[in-house]
Amino acid sequence: MKVLLIGANGQLGSDLCIALKKYDLTALTDKDIDIKDIDSVFQICHKHKPEIIINTAAYVRVDDCEDNVDLAFKVNALGARNVAVAAQQIEAAMVQLSTDYVFGADKNRTRPYTEFDSPAPISIYGESKLAGEAYVQHLCSKYFIVRTSALFGRAGSMGKGGNFVETIIKLAQEKDELRVVNDQVFSPTYAVDLANAIMDLIDTRFYGVFHITNKGICSWYEFSQEIIKLTGFGTRITPISTMEYPQKAERPRYSVLENYQLRLLGMDDMREWKLALKDYMEKRHITAER
Ligand SMILES: NC(=O)c1ccc[n+]([C@@H]2O[C@H](COP(=O)([O-])OP(=O)(O)OC[C@H]3O[C@@H](n4cnc5c(N)ncnc54)[C@H](OP(=O)(O)O)[C@@H]3O)[C@@H](O)[C@H]2O)c1
Description:
Helix content is about 40%, strand content about 15%.
């Protein structure tokens, strides 16, 4: 099967390159394609004629999106539209990556969101990604929209300059105490596990919206506690509230996604985030020793 991957040197894209090895894979970075440019998208898609196009490319800097609204919508909404139109023209299926940040307006939420809940974002990033989802749903007949959350992968997020795990490890090496937000709850997700789940999904014709995250939930504080535990550092971590750590973009207090569609299809074999984190840390250690 011919697969075209967009965003190949990103955090998820890098792990997808490994997971998709068995396919006839064309992996494109931002040097090869600009999804904002409809002509470049059409030209490349028509040239390669893949059966599947996976779009991981996005403007992922959540706070910067608040200041650069046009760019956020150009990349996350119109970029997704451009890929969807091209996919439809060449009769390819499309995988569009999306986010738990399409939710968040329900401040009292304490129950995981399924794919059948109505999104209601509270940030420009969330709004622009939701607009991208809408374009894909309307313009491409064979689509998998994959929502995930709090990714950690070997490459680290290109757009964010790393991932949360690496940020905490770096800060723990520099400071004796860290203050981390304890009132935003979600499911951390290992990019390798997500890449493998996407690989399984594209072998099916189960088109639609999918939530794919590792199992279990935590706050950023609990996530950082587990990271520090695995490093063996003695860094103290103090839980703080979102009010004590103001950021430009509002974040959901609760954005846990349930892998409901995968479960209904008997395909939900995502493991607990703590097991995935342990695996990440072990692999990271091996890489550092080399
Ligand atoms: N990271 C998370 O925690 C998280 C959580 C939920 C959902 N997601 C979604 O998961 C997907 C992958 O995230 P990630 O962490 O892998 O992000 P990433 O590391 O920033 O990768 C995105 C890639 O897209 C490229 N890109 C940006 N604008 C582009 C454009 N106009 N044309 C072509 N390529 C472009 C980036 O290149 P440059 O950096 O060089 O521009 C980068 O290589 C995204 O759709 C994101 O919205 C991520």
